[in-house]
Predict the structure.
Amino acid sequence: MSQPTTPLFGPDGSALRALVVEDEPNLADVLIRMLTYEGWVAAQARTGAIAVAVATEFKPDVVVLDVMLPDGSGLDVLRRLREQNPAVCVLFLTAKDSLEDRIAGITAGGDDYVTKPFSFQEVSARLRGLVRRAGLARSIEDNGLVVGDLRMDEDAREVRRGEDLVELTVTEFELLRLLMRNPRVVLSKAQILDRVWSYDFGGGGHVVELYVSYLRKKLDNGGPPLIHTVRGIGYVLKPSP
């Protein structure tokens, strides 16, 4: 298996979600495995009706959609998916290579298409292009970290919450950078001590609590909290629901 491409993340740092709608089991399974390998959270459906039901709870960022399904046309499924989420990106899979079929898919609202047989690399590249153009994704190689409305430019050592500049000390910046590089991941006080202060010492957990309180005061400023306490474990950075 080739090396995975650089993972993409949503604006809040969470993994992107892909729904594969394909009735051919082997092809669907391969797509799911490869998408998961590349860092997507992936789900599948074998019929249009199941796809619409799954999408209601799964809330995909992209849908890989076969044009011909056992219970109807993928074009009808697209319409129903867009009623749920007008912004969802859709990549059609089609065994038909006629100009009319391709035009029909795009006219119906599809964002792109690939013709069977195809390589997974082509599907991956098309999906990455779709979410980037739609503004739904960022790469860990992009200049800066983003979690919700919090942005950090690591090169400029600048932090903004919304449009407001947040002034941080060196230690506060390093603590926030650790949390932003691990969005939605619960980090223990011991992990934070080791990775921010680079050593352990007696009573060290108190210094973590102190600096977390400093960050909260500077970041929240009356807005929804970003740093959440997980009692008995540590802290996690994530946007409030």
Summary: The two ends are 38 Å apart (CA to CA). The chain has a mean pLDDT of 84.
